[in-house]
Design a protein that fits this description.
Largest sheet: 7 strands, mixed
Strand content: 15-25%
Number of helices: 10
Strand order of the largest sheet: 4-5-6-7-9-11-10
Order of helices and strands: EEHHHHEEHEEHHEEHEHEEH
Radius of gyration: 22 Å
CATH class of the largest domain: Alpha Beta
Oligomer: single chain
CATH superfamily of the largest domain: Gcn5-related N-acetyltransferase (GNAT)
Structural class: alpha+beta
């Protein structure tokens, strides 16, 4: 049987390992980073925005090196890891005068995409850190961040990121195969944080924001990452919330998580159960997500 080494959903076969060993032998003076770049180009490991999937490639190479399948050159330097060295967002002082009114009286709302806009992104990070029950966590992979303003005051924050690799109820709802899911997962965006600031008390505001959000997110995603998205999803902690605002915004309840996490080895519940909600962005979302094979 042919050898298969799996790393974050990618598979390296015996032929792949032979190719990597040949690449190393033909480039004896290359650093690990240079070898990774050449391998990405050879295998066409490229993100939708054109950037090389260098971190994924280096992780695979390191796993093969540690397992003894290849021998990488000695490490020449230890680059700064921003994920390990990232500091917590600094607290901000903000007007907390209560906003208790009706939805029509705070219109129009302004949605600002704040990623890569330093001042506003720092504000977003700080608000999530201070007022969201999960605190701030840097989004995974492709991601966008939004602050919603009413009369120049921030009232809500939302972040969207790359979708989790496998969610049973979502994958059954879409009806795609494992291979298609691995290829097309980037066509889904995950609502990783949704915060209404605690001094804002406006009926129906949360569902209104979600309804407005779906109309702007797809266009922004296309502009920033140069590929479309066709489906949105989120988790709702069933011990804390009922998902009322998602239901009111016409999201679809898909089922619950297992409560075991993606790397579970025990088949025992080790975290809270999450309700999974989804929102199709087009009527033919299943065909789009399955590459016309749905």
């Amino acid at each position: 049987m042919d050898l298969e080494i799996k790393y974050q959903g990618r598979v390296a076969t015996s032929a792949d390992i032979a190719f990597i060993n040949k690449l190393i032998a033909e480039n004896p003076n290359d650093s690990r980073w240079a070898l990774s770049k050449k391998l990405c180009k050879a295998w066409n490991w490229i993100q939708p925005n054109g950037a090389l999937r260098d971190m994924l490639c280096r992780g695979l190479l390191l796993q093969l090196h540690r397992a003894g399948y290849i021998k990488l050159p000695p490490r020449r330097c230890t680059p700064n890891n921003p994920l390990l060295n990232r500091k917590k967002p600094v607290k901000v002082k903000i007007d907390q005068t209560p906003i208790s009114t009706t939805l029509c009286k705070i219109q129009p709302l302004e949605f600002r995409q704040v990623r890569r806009r330093p001042h506003l992104e720092k504000l977003f990070n700080a608000l999530i850190e201070q007022y969201h029950y999960l605190s701030y966590c840097h989004p995974v992979g492709e991601h966008l961040k939004y602050i919603v303003f009413a009369q120049q005051r921030p009232i809500a924050c939302l972040s969207w990121s790359s979708a989790p690799r496998h969610i049973g109820c979502r994958d059954r709802f879409i009806g795609w195969s494992k291979d298609i899911r691995q290829n097309n997962l980037s066509l889904i965006a995950y609502n990783s944080r949704f915060l209404l600031l605690p001094w804002v008390q406006v009926s129906h505001l949360a569902s209104h924001i979600l309804g407005r959000m779906v109309k702007v997110l797809a266009a922004d995603w296309q502009r920033v990452y140069h590929h479309p998205i066709y489906f949105l999803e989120t988790f709702v902690d069933t011990q804390r919330f009922k998902g009322t605002c998602y239901r009111a915004a016409n999201w679809i309840y898909l089922g619950n998580t297992t409560g075991r996490g993606k790397d579970d080895q025990t088949n025992k519940v080790n975290r809270s159960i999450k309700a999974v909600w989804g929102y199709p962005l087009s009527k033919d979302f299943r065909d789009q997500l399955s590459g016309g094979m749905g």
